[in-house]
Amino acid sequence: MLGSMRANKKNQTVIWIILGLLALGLIGFGGIGAGGGSIRSIGKVGNADISVDTYAQALNTAISNLSQQMGRTVTADEAQSFGIQSNVLQGLMITAALDNETENLGISIGDEVVREQLFSNRAFQGLDGNFDEESYNFALERSRLTPSEYDDILRKEAARGILQSSVIAGVKSQGTQTMALLAFDRETRDFTWAELTDTALDAPIQNPTDAQVQSQYEATPDAYTAPLTREITYAWLNPDMLADQVNIDEALIKESYELQSDRFNKPEKRSLERIVFGTVEEATTARNMLDGGSVTFDTLLADRGLTPADVDLGEVVRGGIHKDAADVVFAAEGTGVIGPVTSSLGPALFRINAILNADVTSFENARAEITGELSGEAGRRLVSDLIADIDDMLAAGATIEELAADTDMQLGTISFSAGTTTGIAAYDNFRTIANAAQKTDFPEINDLADGGIFAMRVDAINQPAVRPLADVKDQVVADWIRAETLRQLTVKAESLKLDIDAGASFGSLQANDEKAVGRAGYIENTPTDMLTKMFQLSPGKTAIAAGTNSVFIARLNQINTFDAETDENKTLATLVQQQLDSQVANDLLNAFSNALRDDAEVSINQQAITQINSQLTGGY
């Protein structure tokens, strides 16, 4: 079908997009050996095959995406624990089920539709906007696809689209749910509130009696219970401890500075956009129109069928554009349109959006920072060089104390519980290991985030226990006073509430008026349940909310309902309804797809899946 296609432009830049179906780097999975043969498929749903290449590409993409989200490479065990392999397989089975159903129903598209899709795909277009056969053939070759195979991919995708569209066609709510959601979410409250502190009491709270202290202590034992604590002896070493053993040569500091010119000597940059014209006359005409105010830079883009992304050059240094253009652009003292000037692609207008001045740090000013970095690196190497010897000492039975005595490691002890974050417990890895450590564990070397190391021994594990009253009496007294303060303030607030509900004002209290506060609103220094209670009251009624050391009283003044008739809210309602309709359509489509899969005959080649999983995740 495609043999007769010809494009006028050759040697255009190839754009690597084949609808996201196949990864170019996953060449070689299509012939996984199995008992002397070759496995081409990892399973079938009805008559629809799931190819080895398709599964391998989807799995690789899923793992790569997760690695990018986590900011590090995902391990094989993590990929397994997150269920990546299973999710990928289930997704491909759904796609195969849809392909099987389209075949059963006889849904297909003709050659002309395929041709239109190819010609409209920007991945295969040259700079003139026409189909470029050379780019098309080269892309298929690199993807190990023949034209007929790619045709088949387009046909299957289009057929699935027809089937899916028919399933969700007409899915549209009547708006009742939308308006109910908006009426709830966008309703606001006007109210007045005041805070009652201990100054509102008739007399200061007196210290509790011994009996009251005992009662407070017995009533809230959890507040005075010591957590599970590990008594740990440790030896540790970090690069800073070896600073006196590090001597950084001045020549090395100078060399490091010179090698980091991009860091310490950042050249001037300009954020640029560029429109290229066929002739100087066209560019001059466009500039005159700009100067005359009949067009803007953005309308010039639109008139030429360009988007901002098409003309955005990013942040450019002087050597990043044609010399003639650079001389003019970098001579400009402010932002705005420059040109016409000569560019590498012809006459052009440049728009300067921002000027980033050069940032130069002299060697003298950078010296201390570089020295610190080099010293840290040298210290980390010294620590690393000691690990093997320290491991040998531990294997020979050396104690933590002997490590500290015979090496540069420093001895320490810590009473460690889940909330300890001071000293060596400031390191995440120390806390992780200490939380799981047992008395029977053999000391071993572990890493710290700054390049340091440590080894620990658990001397004792103290189970949670209520601390003696004598040890926590000051805390018990403070807790009783706080509780008694809140009790008396609540009594006073209840009396005020009756008066305010009857129409009285807040009197001498400092009243604060709030207007149009939503359910998700936030009022600083007030308890969260105060706002919650405002949405449970009738206008004119009052609620009480206890804070940490004070009590709040609030009266609801007015309920502001959602006005569905304003232009802004009509637009909002339309957007919300579209989202709800989309969610319903997706749920319906998922249910339909799952039903197709469940009804079809499914066969899975676990041997092929295991081999691909091993080859792919084994590299992560």
Kindly state the number of beta strands: 21
The percentage helix is 40-55%
* Number of H/I helices: 21
CATH hierarchy, class of the largest domain:
Mainly Alpha
Query: How would you classify the helix and strand content by structural class?
Result: alpha+beta
Which fold does the CATH topology of the largest domain refer to? Answer: Triger factor/SurA peptide-binding fold
Termini separation:
42 Å
Main beta sheet strand tally, sense and closure = 4 strands, antiparallel
**Rg of Cα set:** 36 Å
Side by side, the strands of the main sheet go: 18-5-20-19
The mean pLDDT is 85
In terms of DSSP E residues, the strand content is 15-25%
- Given as residue ranges, the uncertain stretches (5+ residues, pLDDT < 50) are 1-31, 33-37
CATH architectural designation of the largest domain:
Orthogonal Bundle
Shape: extended
Written overview of the protein:
Helix content is 46%, strand content 19%. The protein has 4 domains: 160 residues, Triger factor/SurA peptide-binding fold (Orthogonal Bundle), CATH 1.10.4030; 128 residues, Chitinase A, domain 3; 96 residues; 90 residues, Chitinase A, domain 3. The strands form 7 sheets. It has a 4-stranded antiparallel sheet. The protein has a 4-stranded antiparallel sheet with strand order 14-7-16-15, sandwiched between helices. The chain contains 21 helices and 21 strands. It is of the alpha+beta class. α1 packs parallel to α21 and α3 packs across α20. It starts with 31 loop residues before the first strand and ends with a helix. The N terminus is likely disordered. It is extended and about 95 Å long.
